[in-house]
Amino acid sequence: PKLLEYNADTPTSLLESAVCQWYWLEDVFPDADQFNSLHEKLVEQWKALPGDEPVYVATLADNEEDWVCGTYLIDT
């Protein structure tokens, strides 16, 4: 037997969970609302960090999924 992985129904990265699913929902079901508010919560939590201490985000340079997730965290 051969096992194939198919993740079309489960997001594999933070960007898919927070942004891509939102745009898909707006395109396919414009009158519906997204169940999660991950993007908004990330933005609020960054604001809630104390002081002006730097935050470091590390990713694997040769892993596109990690790099995209890290870049998205920085953008929020």
How would you describe this structure to a colleague?
The protein is an all-alpha fold. Helices cover 50% and strands 0% of the residues. It has three helices and no strands. The mean pLDDT is 83.
Give a brief description.
The protein has 76 residues and is an all-alpha fold.
Low-confidence runs (pLDDT<50, min 5 residues)? none
What is the alpha-carbon Rg in Å? 16 Å
Q: What is the overall number of helices?
A: 3
Strand content: under 5%
Essential attributes:
single chain, 76 residues, mainly alpha, 3 helices, 0% strand, flat
Write the layout of secondary structure elements.
Elements: H1 14-28, H2 38-48, H3 64-75
